[in-house]
Predict the 3D structure of the following.
Amino acid sequence: SPPALDGSLNRSAARGHLSTSMAAIGSTGGSTGGSIAIGSTGGSTGGSIAIGSTGGSTRTRTKPPHPHPHASTPIASFNAGVAAFKRGDRAEAARHFEEAAAKRHPKAIHNLALIVEEEQPARAVELYRAAAALGMAEAQYALGARLKEGLEGAYYPNPTEALEHLARAAGKGHAKANYAVGCMLESGTGVPAPDIPGAQRHFEVAAAAGDVKAAVNLGRLCEKSEVAHLHGQAAKWYARASEAGDPTAAFNLSMLHASGTGGAPKAPLKELEFLRLAVARGSPRAQYNLATKMLRGEGVPRDEEGALKLLEAADAAGVDDKSARMIRRIMRARKERAHAAAEEERVRREREAAAEEAEPETTTPTEAAIERVRA
């Protein structure tokens, strides 16, 4: 699912956020000229472009020289839609966004797409496309994210077109779009071949804007780079992502301090510090590495019980089967030790019993006299 879009009204991560701000995008009052009928179900739309209509006629008409004094402006309709959405009235919000969308208000079109997407995903994509055509970076990002993956029964994946829309949003400084473009360029998706330098540039823009995943990816690319000055920047980017709470970045920093590479000095204490931090944040790989240290007593007290708990947690994450193999080895070793201890105890008891049976009965003269008196 594409990541969440920016905005002040939270929606699900896959569907983005409702746009509520009028800054920079949208008209400043009145009609923008012409109209777009989007997803109408009938009747005349009175505009020049029809998108997703299912019936009725579309005709071009001349804009009146003076709007009706009580006619709703795109901004008024948009704001009314936002207010209705905040009240929890999605139907009323959609009606107002429809009104503003018909007057080419980009944010209204975008918000309408968010509202209808769950039930009408194909129409939502066309709405995103309409808002993207009007230059809205959020819509360009949303459209690109959806076209990259596609949705069965609604629209086909189109990585090449997806990259075009994402690149437009990225060019406007959209952090998540820059991250998405970086991922596509690194993997060679939507392009003839992978473009690592291009991916790195987009990750840098996204990381500079605060995108934590971009910082992690940038650190990884630097770590893998054979160019010395780039390789030496890996620790810097991992540190930035770790400061933001990323578990993978903390784990990767611990590995760099273990090997003394990527711009990090070799420092066992730092390695252990970041390893524990990654474990606290739930990194399965960190849980596995710390468990192996605890089993060996390597830099930490030997603790088989603690190691087993970490391995079980790592195994539950399902990252790989290393943890499961280690758990099986520990449990097998425990079983073997318990069996050996039981066998040792059995042999000891058998020897004691045999020794008791083999001892001759001896009595002292005094004991014999006492026995005769008793008799």
Q: What stands out?
A: The beta strands are 36-38, 49-51. The longest strand covers residues 36-38. Residues 1-14, 21-70 have pLDDT under 50 and may be disordered.
